[in-house]
Amino acid sequence: MKTAIIIPARYGSTRFPGKPLALIDGRSMLSRVYAKGMQAAIHGRNIAVMIATDDDRIAAHAREIGARCVMTDSRCATGSDRVLQAADNSGEVFDFLIGLQGDAPFTPVGILKALIDTIAENPEFDVVTPVHRLSWRDLDSLRAAKQTTPFSGTTCIRHADGRALWFSKNIIPAIREEEKLRAQSPLSPVWQHMGVYGYRADILRRFVKWPQTPYEKLEGLEQLRFLENDIAVQTVEVSGAHGPLQSGIDSPEDIARAEAHIKAFGDDL
């Protein structure tokens, strides 16, 4: 089985133009993400790593950091479309595609390894994606962040077997008797989605042909298109997370939080 880790990176973000090139503690966001992909590729076999972009500035930066880069169409509707187009434009054929967001510099390498292992052990899965259970402290931090950047951070509710039931930019589920639950466990009942996806290539090819779905449009979450078309999304439980920023950086305000994260937990590159 042949797998590609593809990093979609757009310059023209509405909320944060040039985001992949933004510096975090002196190092570009994109270089941090690419380094994580390369570290994970060593874990498996037949794994390629590449950046997918529609912008010459990002392509030039990819060359500077020694990264393989594939140009894609500026009209790609989503990161998933860009992942598939990059795979098609690469000149290779892949069975599974892992989309590693170019704005998620704190994605632990262990998460990518967990996806690689899950795919290898369960090639019948359609889509796989990691989640981690928030501590109460991290839930409080996520709530505070949403006061100023309400679309930062995605949460998930899931079936007992790990299949995703729903994703939202709101914090779900609502929690009754929270003080009682806080006294019972250091972990909250909230699962945070970490924006990495592994897709069977044939499933992703179907996905990009479907129109956007109603809840996908409302939430701004493309993974809801799978759920609204009855495609199972298997969540992979991971641990060892250090807070909500691992879901991605969505705004300039998140850069300050990212640098505070490095100060508090260190830099793993």
UniProtKB/TrEMBL annotation:
Pfam families on file: CTP_transf_3
Assigned keywords, A-Z: Lipopolysaccharide biosynthesis, Nucleotidyltransferase, Transferase
InterPro entries for the chain: Cytidylyl_trans, KdsB, Nucleotide-diphossugar_trans
Molecular function as annotated in GO: 3-deoxy-manno-octulosonate cytidylyltransferase activity
GO biological process: lipopolysaccharide biosynthetic process
Gene Ontology cellular component annotations, sorted alphabetically: cytosol
Listed name of the protein: 3-deoxy-manno-octulosonate cytidylyltransferase
Residues forming coiled coils: none
Taxonomy of the source species: Bacteria, Pseudomonadati, Bdellovibrionota, Bdellovibrionia, Bdellovibrionales
